[in-house]
UniProtKB/TrEMBL annotation:
Residues 21-36 have a biased composition (Low complexity). PANTHER family: EXPRESSED PROTEIN-RELATED, OS08G0107100 PROTEIN-RELATED. The chain crosses the membrane at residues 88-110, 141-163, 184-213, 219-238, 272-304, 316-345. Residues 227-333 form the Glycerophosphoryl diester phosphodiesterase membrane domain. It comes from Nonomuraea mangrovi. This is Glycerophosphoryl diester phosphodiesterase membrane domain-containing protein.
Length: 388
């Protein structure tokens, strides 16, 4: 017994009992620092605090409305194609076919010339070489120009479709075109400015290499040209990455060409290497997909061109088969690249401008109303950006 308090079993009078709550039959003096009660056990898994899993992000459309990972970007691109296949794949097929026709004709003429040589080995090799060069070069130039025009317009239309698909809305090709038509001049302005920036160092490089070669040092000219080529590839990757968001900015934010380039530069800042890596990975994937899809058609066209012996029917057949293979490959790769670029742009705005909060607020309101209306397009304007 001590101070009128009963000593619990197992405790001596010299050793004070552990601290008990008031009202306990073994209450004692206030505990010292080493006698503080043990912390409560952790809550069971699933409760906030230990192993707590936050609720999933709001996802009204093709992406969750939060900063995106690599898987989210590619998954969103696939969902973009699947959610609106008529508009996305239909427009891509038309553009791919228009761009593929000149190249297909050139390849068909080249294979027909090869078939003529095999049928008549005495044919003039120099004339064949000259004709093959012309049949390949001229259609390629024409196709490049056509592709530049068609793909620029297609990219704008696909970006507009993507802007609505983020909220789960669908848009027809005609409606997308009506919304993009006024932005086409600005899109071409962006493309021409980027081409000018890309070609700016090419002229002095060519002059330097030519001057070294004319000075009687062809070996030095070749080495210098190889060095400049490596540096130019790095320069091209840098420029394309920095200005990769210019087209989405023109279409979704309504800015002019110069403003779009500046805004793209700012959006890429702080995440340059990630943007570059994703764009390079997308280029590789697009090339592999295009090659796999078009390879069987190229094989059939090559056999038909060689076996046809240069006949008109064989030439037409080869051109058609080439066009089908090229169109099929580009029909998938065009929306793949446009979708990844558009979602990367969206991700950068969410990371640098807290744009996901803007999208979440709008999505909740549209869910309350039960439909996605055209006012969602106005949310992409830069005035809605928030600084985190």
């Amino acid at each position: 017994m001590s101070d009128g308090h009963e000593t619990p079993p197992g405790w001596s009078a010299e050793q004070p009992p552990p601290y008990q709550a008031p009202g306990s039959p073994y209450s004692g003096p206030a505990p010292s620092a080493w006698q503080q009660p043990a912390p409560p056990p952790p809550p069971p898994y699933g409760h906030q605090g230990y192993g707590y899993m936050p609720p999933p992000a709001l996802r009204p459309g093709i992406i969750p409305l939060r900063p995106l990972g690599l898987g989210d970007i590619y998954d969103g691109t696939i969902k973009l194609i699947r959610s609106n296949p008529k508009s996305v794949l239909g427009l891509s097929a038309i553009v791919a076919a228009v761009a593929a026709i000149p190249v297909s004709i050139g390849q068909a003429l080249a294979l027909s010339s090869l078939g003529t040589v095999l049928a008549d080995p005495q044919a003039n090799a120099d004339a064949l070489e000259s004709g093959g060069f012309l049949s390949q070069t001229l259609p390629t130039i024409i196709s490049s120009v056509v592709s530049l025009v068609a793909v620029t317009i297609l990219t704008g239309v696909l970006i507009r479709i993507l802007g609505r698909a983020v909220f789960g809305g669908k848009i027809t090709a005609g409606e997308a075109w009506r919304l993009v038509a006024s932005r086409v001049p600005a899109l071409f302005g962006v493309i021409l400015l980027i081409i000018a920036i890309m070609l700016a160092p090419a002229v002095p490089i060519a002059l330097i290499v030519y001057a070294v070669a004319m000075a009687g040092s062809p070996g030095a000219a070749v080495g210098l040209g190889a060095l400049f080529m490596i540096l130019y590839i790095g320069y091209a990757l840098f420029v394309n990455t920095r200005f990769s968001f210019a087209a989405p900015v023109v279409v979704l934010e309504g800015l002019g060409p110069v403003q779009a380039l500046r805004r793209s530069w700012r959006l890429v800042s702080g995440d340059f290497w990630r943007v570059l890596g994703i764009l390079l990975l997308t280029m590789v994937l697009a090339y592999l997909v295009s090659t796999v899809l078009s390879f069987p058609f190229g094989l059939i066209a090559g056999i038909a061109g060689v076996m046809g012996g240069g006949s008109t029917g064989a030439t037409i057949l080869v051109a058609v088969v080439f066009a089908i293979g090229t169109t099929l490959g580009a029909m998938i790769t065009y929306p793949l690249q446009a979708g990844v670029t558009g979602l990367l742009y969206t991700d950068r705005r969410m990371r640098s401008e807290a744009f996901d909060l803007v999208l979440q607020t709008a999505a909740l309101e549209q869910q309350r109303q039960g439909w996605v209306h055209a006012s969602a397009d106005e949310l992409w304007h830069p005035s809605n950006a928030r600084r985190p």
